[in-house]
Design a protein that fits this description.
Length: 211
């Protein structure tokens, strides 16, 4: 069983109210991933990154998650689609141009959260997360459909899980949303319009631990 699976198994839920406070959390890269999907007429492909390719922070009061803030960034130099030439073309000067450091990172800055009530330990709660997605230095506003799970551990459980980076308070965020290349100032070459879609679906599975 993986460390994350073990963590989920040992989640402690509470039937009564939970006293909460604002928490500062940091993304655990080994238990987080980000993907994008292009579904064109003749070809579908998925780009994946995890571990050192994704980083982020989150600040949230579980009693008032509507006021949460945070930032997630993905290193496009570490995204892989399964074909090396496609990866190189994607990073090249005619597209993302990731040799420019400011183009290397895709970022999402959280601005507001629509969620019904407080977080509850062990319960996945639906939310809409509004924020600014920046690709190749072109920011656009996007709204992600998400679920947020507060995973709270006892001192004994923390002792067994701390070597993996988990703490007494951990939050898992799964989210998905879409964007387009043209919204970020990029145009799919005419030669590739049947193989690369202008519409891109993004999905994240992120785990944060309190610092």
């Amino acid at each position: 069983m993986t460390a994350l699976a073990t963590l989920v198994v040992v989640v402690v839920t509470s039937s009564g109210p939970v006293l909460a406070e604002t928490m500062a959390l940091k993304l655990l890269p080994n238990y987080s991933r980000a993907t994008f999907k292009s579904d064109a007429l003749l070809e579908t492909f998925v780009g994946n990154t995890a571990a050192e390719g994704v980083a982020g922070t989150l600040t949230v009061d579980p009693a008032r998650p509507q006021g949460a803030s945070g930032m997630v960034k993905v290193d496009m130099n570490l995204v892989r689609t399964g074909i090396d030439k496609r990866d190189a073309d994607m990073r090249g000067k005619n597209f993302l141009d990731t040799e420019v450091d400011a183009n290397r990172w895709v970022t999402f800055e959280m601005k507001s959260v629509e969620i019904a009530g407080p977080l509850e330990p062990g319960k996945a709660i639906p939310a809409k997360v509004r924020g600014i997605l920046t690709v190749k230095q072109k920011p656009v506003e996007r709204v992600a459909d998400a679920t947020v799970t507060w995973i709270k551990l006892t001192p004994e459980q923390v002792e067994s899980q701390k070597r993996f980076g988990f703490t007494a308070d951990n939050i898992k965020v799964r989210a998905r949303f879409g964007t387009t290349f043209t919204d970020h100032g990029m145009q799919v070459p005419q030669l590739l319009i049947f193989k690369v879609s202008n519409d891109i679906q993004l999905e994240t599975d992120l785990t944060f631990a309190r610092q």
